[in-house]
Amino acid sequence: MESDRADVTESSFLESATTILDRPRQYVDDAEMGVDHLAHKELLWKLSSTYLPNDVASLQRSLVRHVEYTLARRRYKLDTSSFYQATAHSVRDRLIERWTDTQQYSAKKGAKKVYYLSLEFLIGRSLGNAVSNLGLRGAYAEALRQIGYDLEDIMSEEKEPALGNGGLGRLASCFLDTLATQNYPAWGYGIRYKYGMFEQRIVNGKQVEFPDYWLTDGNPWEVERLDVQYPVRLFGHVREFQDPDGNTLYAWEGGEVVMAQAYDTPIPGYGTYNTNNMRLWSSKPSHEFNLASFNAGNYYGAVEAKERCESITSVLYPNDATEEGKRLRLKQQYFFVSATLQDIYRRFKKNVGRGSTTMKNMPDKVAIQLNDTHPAIAIPELMRLLLDIERLPWDEAWEITRKVFAYTNHTILPEALEKWPVPMITELLPRHMQIIYEINHRFLLEVQKMWPNDTARMSSMSIIEESSPKMVRMSNLAVIGSHTVNGVAMIHTKLLKSLLFPDFLLMWPEKFINVTNGVTPRRWLLQANPALASIYTGMVGPGWVNDLKRLEPIKTMAQDPQFRQRWRAAKQTNKQALAEWLYRSMNIRVDPNALFDMQIKRIHEYKRQLLNVLGIVHRYAEITQATPEQRKTMVPRVHIIAGKAAPGYVMAKNLVMLVCAVSEVVNSDAACRDLLKVVFVPNFNVSLAEILIPASDISQHISTAGMEASGTGNMKFVMNGGLIVGTMDGANIEIEQAIGEHNMFTFGAKADQVAAIRRKMAHDPPKIDPRLHRAMGMIRAGIFGKPDDGAYNQLLDAIDPRKDVYLTAHDFPSYLGAIAEADAAYQYEEKWTAKCIEAACSMWMFSSDRTIREYAAKIWNVEPLPFRPPRHHSER
Ligand SMILES: *Cc1c(COP(=O)(O)O)cnc(C)c1O
Fold first, then answer.
1. What is the mean pLDDT of the chain?
2. Residue with CA nearest ligand 1 atom 11
3. Residue 253 CB coordination number (10 Å)
4. Pocket lined around ligand 1, Cβ cut-off 6 Å
5. Residues 261, 281: contact at Cβ < 8 Å?
6. How far is residue 307 CA from its own chain's centroid?
7. Which residues have a Cβ under 8 Å from the Cβ of 90 and sit 6 or more positions away?
8. Ligand 1 centroid to residue 166 C-alpha, Å
9. 713 CA to middle of ligand 1, Å?
């Protein structure tokens, strides 16, 4: 190292200055430079008009340079974590050049942009995704290897930003990956929570939540945009006044003003230069705010108020599929929406007045997708901007607004539908409350015209629920204010139309459409499962990554014994890797030849982890009573359960406790030794999913029919060559159609039977299955301990056959049937492998690439705009 440095001669220095130098970071004033303006510009262009070199030696120089100059670390004392930081910065440089060029290009072209508004983005780690999407995985791996580091080790140093709860947030991130890959001009907008999803630890057999302060070591993937800040008002009052023509106008004034500060994260596409943006907002006190309160002489009060400003974006609400109705959450929603709309508005307004563009053209340039109702306050906010700032007449403003917004519904569960008390909105957002009332008034006139004097319809369609206090139904507001409403799987859209919005459907039949969810093959195959990915690439070339349909022909290979052998070897590699991971991180030994069965998702009663646990307890009973002959016929199984319970969700936390207790008993019972292991893996997140999913043989997606909107975990598992035990719910139904019924183990009541079953059991309780009776008896008897708070009894009481809301007891016998079928099939190794191959290679429908193409065509009306750099790398 020392001699290397001494070796820098003038000529090698010059060489590095011309071929290795990064883009200039500092532009000096013309005057200060004292050079001819044009020559200066030319030099500037020359210095910045080529991309950074990506050969191994250049990457090494960039790494070392970041260690020394960015991190200011000594060159001899480098741990993996410093090298993670350096690698991240080196990759970031390469993202940034593509990113700024993409943004400049799309601005120049004046393309219509998609804005995906989501309170959650479950991004996962960025380093692996970035090197892979940039096509630099091999080069970085080699560059690091030569200097004694392993890219995989370095990648695992990254702390993942957990800015989402589960499926909804992960969907948003899969969509951003696809939007960039398919060259759509698209931005994601969200919140930069200081504390993301809590970290789950198991302490004394119980879930304990720890704060996730993910920014401790900094975040090399974001760019702080001190130049992008907007004021956001809260509270205050509405002033009514007349303009010179006698029109009544409104101004929202007073209250508090908080600043929204932008943080940008480049989102690279795969196999394209296109790099989109995810802009997350962070709250901070405004200057105006500071001065006013400090000058008032109330020092402590002012400091407290300052803290309040910063608290708006401090924490992600850890509820999945339930609403809490907390005031701070409403503040978050409005804060995020206000900053986002100001930003979109400013970008659009650069075009207004240019050529013939007017405000009316906003829908030609702007498509806003609302990821659930969480950002639906954007509808009255855009109205406010158009009415109060632009001073457009109501009808014009309303037409623009409706053409801009589209709304994705994610659930029909009543406990998940957002409602805000009218007094709360009135206090926090007085002008918006007025506008919501006006939207509702005009809408109800339409209802009255269509169904005169139908008060029942009026009250169910109204945005305002006439309860005490009155509530604002955000879903009705979102439907009324959007041009398109979509469900996320066929069955979900059907239920949405028939149960949630039947009257709206009669009014606007063409407004409701289905767009089935999808997941990105970049993260969930290429990155998570290199063993399988390399088989695919070997068979059909690398193009499958952006075109999953190319895997279809591989289905016929299911008949080829040699191919099956290779397939099994890949699965075995992944199972082995997981077994080692479990040993290293949890000190649990599992046999990689056993069947790996996984249920990994948020813990929720409707997802029925309890059904799974009862099945495991049943199996445990069977094992302990089996004769040596019977034992030989049993399939050795490893059951993996993972997922977080919302901190206030007692039933879900009880369930976690029960899983941990069952695991403790089963794993230490000699009778189970080679037949059954149960593992609760704590702190389920994206990185963990990437380790677990490729190693699964079976995964369980067993929600009560009609309750899981789509599910996306199901898609990831099948793509990775695992099979599903599942109910006819969500996307399971479409997956079964795509892969064939013989490749899925289905069971349970169908969605259209659930209501009748519930009605019947209320007055005619069914007899309890003896196997279920035994399993419940074991739990009640205290075989898995007896928690003081009666936690297990509480779980079991809820499935009493008379009030078995989730049909757990009802579906238990057919569930055991499906599990038994899976076991039986697993024993025929060759047939099993053929099923996995057929299923995995039939999954193109469930790539988010297909999903996004549908959104683009049916909802957004946008076209891809591929950015190609003016010169290729190699020309430098
Ligand atoms: C895919 C995913 C989910 C969603 O899983 P479902 O089975 O669809 O509920 C939740 N969390 C993480 C981390 C995921 O990757």
1. 92
2. 166
3. 12
4. 122, 166-167, 170, 601, 685-686, 689, 711-713, 716
5. yes
6. 29
7. 59, 62, 63, 66, 140
8. 5
9. 5
Sign, CA dihedral 121-125-127-128, equals: negative
Ligand 1 atom 7 nearest Cα: 713
Would the pLDDT of 600 be above 60? yes
Q: Which of 139, 188, 189, 194 is nearest to 162 (CA)?
A: 194
Active site amino acids: 410, 601-602, 607, 712, 716
Residue 629 Cα to ligand 1 middle (Å) = 40
Closest-CA residue, ligand 1 atom 9, reads 601
* Spatial distance between the Cα atoms of 281 and 225, rounded to a whole number of angstroms: 10
The tens digit of pLDDT for each residue in 609-632 reads 999 999 999 999 999 999 999 999
Q: Which atom of ligand 1 is nearest to the CA of 714?
A: 7
From ligand 1's centre to the CA of 158, what distance in Å? 20
Q: Which of 630, 638, 519, 641 shows the shortest CA–CA distance to 575?
A: 638
pLDDT in the model for residue 222 = 98
Atom of ligand 1 nearest to the CA of 710: 8
Tally: H helices and E strands in the chain: 37, 22
Rounded to whole angstroms, how far apart are CA atoms 222 and 144?
23
Q: Going by C-beta distance under 8 Å and a sequence separation of 6 or more, which residues neighbour residue 770?
A: none
- Single-letter code of the amino acid located at 430: P
Query: Rounded to the nearest whole angstrom, what is the distance from the C-alpha of residue 217 to the centroid of ligand 1?
Result: 26
Q: What is the mean pLDDT of residues 811-822?
A: 98
Whether pLDDT at 14 is above 80: no
Mutate which of 170, 199, 316 to test ligand 1's pocket (most atoms within 8 Å of Cβ)?
Answer: 170
Q: Which atom belonging to ligand 1 lies closest to the Cα atom of 167?
A: 4
Rounded distance from Cα 730 to ligand 1 centre (Å): 13
Atom 5 of ligand 1: nearest residue by CA position: 713
Predicted local confidence at residue 292, as pLDDT:
66
Q: Whose CA is nearest to atom 1 of ligand 1?
A: 713
Q: Would you state the pLDDT for residue 90?
A: 98
Instruction: Answer whether the bond into residue 363 is a cis peptide, omega within 30°.
Output: no
Q: Which of 174, 712, 719, 846 to mutate to test the pocket of ligand 1 (most atoms within 8 A of CB)?
A: 712
Give, in order, the Cα–Cα distances in Å from 192 to each of 28, 196, 343, 567, 590.
Answer: 33, 9, 16, 41, 39
**Eight-state DSSP code of residue 849:** H
341 vs 337: CA distance, rounded Å: 6
Backbone angles phi, psi at 366, to 5 degrees: -135, 125
User: What percentage of the chain has pLDDT greater than the value 70?
Assistant: 93
Per-residue tokens: 172:
């948003």
User: Which atom belonging to ligand 1 lies closest to the Cα atom of 686?
Assistant: 13
What is the set of domains in the chain, with CATH numbers? Answer: 51-109+133-157 (no CATH), 588-835 (3.40.50.2000)
**pLDDT of 331-358, one tens digit each?**
999 999 999 999 999 999 887 767 778 8
What number does the ligand 1 atom closest to the CA of 730 have?
8
Tell me the per-residue pLDDT of 233-283, one tens digit each, with 9 for 90 and over.
999 999 999 999 999 999 999 999 999 999 999 999 999 999 999 999 999
pLDDT digits (tens, 9 = 90+) for 717-760: 999 999 999 999 999 999 999 999 999 999 999 999 999 999 99
Confidence of residue 289 (pLDDT cuts 50, 70, 90): low
Give the per-residue SS3 of 769-800.
CHHHHHHHHHHHHCCCCCCCCCHHHHHHHCCC
| DSSP E strand stretches across 109-197 | 113-117, 186-191
Consecutive H or E run containing 616 = helix 609-625
